Amino acid sequence: MSINTLEQYLPDNTFPFLKKWFSDYYIHIKITKNRNSKLGDYSKLPDQSHQITVNSTLDKQLFFFVLTHELAHLIAFEKFNFRISAHGKEWKDTFRDMLVESIDIYTEDLKPIIAKFSKNPKANFMASPELVRYFHIENPEDNFVFVEDLLINEEFHYKGDGYRLLEKKKKLYLCVNLKNSKKYLFRALAKVEKLTLNEE
User: Fold this and answer.
1) Mind giving me the DSSP string for 109-146?
2) First vs last C-alpha separation in the chain
3) Largest CA distance in the chain
4) Which of 39, 59, 142, 200 is deepest in the core (most CB within 10 A)?
């Protein structure tokens, strides 16, 4: 993929960073359709070149963030060899340095979130509530909320079933299925449809 093609998915002024980070490696960048299971990934190919995939539907700033995450894997593995843990200290340190170096790419309201995240980078984007909230722009006309935004005993729909929130258990939320009375644990940032009563 040409750098011109890649640039259409990225914020302005990213080229100097990409040129520096890419310079020592032969990298295939693949822009993929939206994948619910992941935002991007990195792999080393049999010919010793590298492949990074990133979802095409991402906000430009998030696209750059994910690309930085995956490039940090490549650089850490090449620098410290492939015996390191995928999301261990070497990757965290590499990702942190890249985020700090490129923080001016991000908008003023996002910079503090990136700065805070960079102090202890998480392997999974969904484990970073502030970033998830920032990039999930809510439609005020719909009833979709995060489970953590519900009150005890409020009811919601999730994948076609109705549930009631019972209690918070550490980082998870205990809910009961209204149909079969079985209890389930939900992540704080699970997106659900809040049930509302029509006012007479």
Assistant:
1) TTHHHHHHHHTS--SSGGG-HHHHHHH-PPPTTS-EEE
2) 58
3) 68
4) 39
Q: How confident is the model at residue 177 (pLDDT cuts 50, 70, 90)?
A: very high
Q: Give this prediction's pTM.
A: 0.69
Could you tell me which residue, 50 or 124, shows the higher pLDDT? 50
70 neighbors 41 (Cβ within 8 angstroms):
yes
Q: Are 177 and 166 in contact (CB under 8 A)?
A: no
Q: What's the rounded Cα separation, in Å, for the pair 147 and 191?
A: 6
**How would you class 64 by CB atoms within 10 Å of its CB: exposed for 0-12, middle for 13-18, buried for 19 or more?**
buried
d(CA 179, CA 158): 12
Residue 39's closest CA among 127, 150, 110?
127
